[in-house]
Design goal:
The protein contains four helices and two strands, in the order E-H-H-E-H-H. The protein is mainly alpha-helical. It has one domain. Strands 1-2 form a two-stranded antiparallel sheet. Helix 1 crosses helix 2 and helix 2 packs across helix 4. It starts with a strand and ends in a 9-residue tail after the last helix. The mean pLDDT is 91.
Length: 91
């Protein structure tokens, strides 16, 4: 297993869970921008083994961890909504 930031997995999964309840564009560009915004505000969780991945998972099962991810996602949605980078229809 190569070194990876499992926070990206957590943020992407959480965005998938909540995106339908958010008033935002769901195109690939906007999703990517929301994820990038959130990841730049959260502490990375790098692992290089499956054991490390399991260890991080156990240590991230708190309510505060989920709140931090959701807060970063919601902030990202607001920023991306105000400054979308996707191709506008009719432009």
């Amino acid at each position: 297993m190569k070194c990876q930031n499992v926070m990206e997995e957590y943020v992407t999964r959480k965005l998938d869970e909540v995106i339908d309840s958010l008033d935002c564009c769901k195109c690939d560009q906007c999703r990517s921008d929301i994820i990038s915004y959130a990841l730049n505000r959260l502490s990375p969780k790098y692992v290089s083994t499956e054991r490390g991945k399991a260890f991080v998972k156990v240590n991230t099962m708190s309510s505060q961890f989920e709140i931090d991810i959701l807060t970063a996602i919601y902030e990202g949605v607001e920023i991306v909504k105000k400054n979308p980078r996707h191709q506008q229809k009719g432009a």
